[in-house]
Amino acid sequence: MHPVCDEVGKMRRPRRRTVMRDVRVWLTGCLMYVPQRLHFGGSGGSSAQFQFARALLAFLLFCLAFEWLFSTPSLPRSLSRSLVSPQSACGKGENNYQQDHHHYHHGRRYSLQNSSFCIGDWTSDCFPRVQGICFSSDKVRICGKQPNHGVGQKQQELPRFMRFNGEQLTVPVVKASCDKGWHWISGLSLVADQRFLPEGKPNPHHEAEKLIPALLLAQRYKGPNVSLHWFAAKSDVSVWAQGFLDAFNLLDKVRYHVLPSRTDDSICFEDAVLFSGPTQVCYIPDMETNAWLRARVLNHCSIPSVNASWPVTQAVIMDRNKGPRQLANKHEIGDLLGKILQVPVKHLLAGTGSFCDQVQEVSQDDFFVVPHGSQNVNFLFARPGAIVIEVFPYLFYNDALHNFTHATGIEVHPLMGLLPPGNMMMRFYSMFGWDICYNHVRWCKNYARHQAIYGDRFKLEQIIQSIQSQRSHGLN
Hints:
Blueprint: E1 4-5, E2 11-12, H1 16-37, H2 44-70, E3 110-112, E4 116-119, E5 126-130, E6 133-135, E7 140-142, E8 161-164, E9 169-175, E10 183-192, H3 204-222, E11 227-230, H4 239-247, E12 255-256, E13 267-275, H5 287-300, E14 315-320, H6 330-341, E15 345-350, H7 355-363, E16 367-371, E17 387-392, H8 400-404, E18 411-416, H9 424-429, H10 433-439, H11 442-448, H12 457-472
Parallel strand pairs: 7-9, 10-11, 10-13, 11-12, 14-15, 14-16, 16-17, 17-18
Antiparallel strand pairs: 1-2, 3-4, 4-5, 5-13, 6-7, 6-13, 8-9
Helix pairs in contact: 1-2, 6-12
């Protein structure tokens, strides 16, 4: 069982024999009491119903007891296969910056192919490229015959659908003929929709998933003649995204489109790279590219560029400013940080203020504890060598932050959240375990990701002690 605190605040573990005895007594009482409360008749059919009800109750109670006995409020060691952080998808190719910060190899950073635009190597993110595509009110048409991908090139599948109007409208992507009299845009166009960007809920993480690859293709690789198109209203774009575009002189160069009505001509592109579907969040191929990106942003915001130092002089708990997944026990976590690190602890709310305000919050300190969320995209601009401990909701985990910061030089440490006290639904979902809940039961995953986060202070202390040990031996 997970450690709990006794009266004097010391860590102890419940006695397993006592727990098993209590559960046995509880089960026996339930099995005897509940059937007695069921009023069945004396017929043979009623007797069968009685036995069935008793067996069903025994099974349900056994499931609950099994979950209670063999799972912990943090990481269920006997029920879950997710005991070790999954490998980052960005660290498998020879062109990527490895997690130990010592095995970066120069190589191909991107590839603009006949059928896709890829960043990094074969395992990283690719975006489909199409020759002839038209957007109308009820469908997205892929026109004519598409070029074959070359030998050794990765073919990226086209999205089955695209989303518009703040994700309120889903339009299928189909192969169909296009009218040459429609409005056609020539040249290479980088085209994004509003998938993962619901109305009224700006999400810098998913905006970056579209904007940064498009920016790299337009400015870093292909040149300034590439045009950027976004099927969104400018008012739907977050403060973060507008500030990011402004940092690269693109704020007035992005062409925003409204999906045509039924009576309007379709909007068509002769050659387009589509930024719509989910990615592995590996859109930064290497350290050099991230350094260029960071330098441009810091210079735009007039923020000095420095590296992190050790030992740290301050720790920061950066909570979400609104919505789910806020740190419910952040003050207890702050007390623990101050005690172990022997430094003052500052509390901030992420995602507030201008783009430069948000960047400054992550670029002026060296040690952070943050909940999982889209606001963490700003760590792309953090000090190299900074330490970030990301706290996840109970039964929820992904590797997004580790993936998109793999070339930043920062250290990212995952911390699994505790079972929220008094949340019986999450207690029920505990029977699935972390792996099944996240990867196989969507309603469990979606419920878990919207709950308050309780950081595991016992595990947090272990992580910090490990960091201190490594830093004291010069390992970082």
